[in-house]
Task: structure prediction
Amino acid sequence: MDEAKLHHEISRDEGVMHTVYLDHLGLKTCGIGHLCIEGKDPEFDQPVGTPVSKERVAELFQEDMRSVLLDCERLYSNFYDLPEDAQHVVANMMFNLGLPRLRKFKNMKKAVDAGDYQKAALEMCDSKWYSQVKNRADRLVKRMRSIG
Result:
C-alpha cells in the first residue's frame, strides 16, 4: 500500500486545520480530522481557535493513521491482500467513520470479501454516510467501481 498517497488523500478529504475547532457534530477537533479526547489530548481543554503546531498535527495524524490501519485489519483479516484501491477506499472510510460505524456496512463488507467491487460501490451509496459526505463519497464510490 502506498501510505504516502493514502495520507495525501485523507488530508485532502478531511482538510488540515492548525487550530482547535468544532466539527459538524460540535465536537472538539484539530489537525486532520482528529477528534480531541478528554484526558488524552491537551487540545480538548483548549478553547476553539487555539493554534495547534504543524508538528502536533503531524503527530496526531500519524497516531490516527496507525489506529485506522489496525482497525482495517480487524474488519478485513485479508486487508493487505485486497486491491490497493480497495484498501485506500476502506481506510478512507475507516478514518471518516471509525470502526463501530463502518462495521455496520455489512453488505459492503460481504461484497468486498467476495471481490464484487461493483456491488460494494452500490452498498456505499445506500447509506446515510453517502448523503452526508457527498463529494468524498462520490470519489470513493467511483474508485471502488473502477476496481477489477
Summary: The two ends are 17 Å apart (CA to CA).
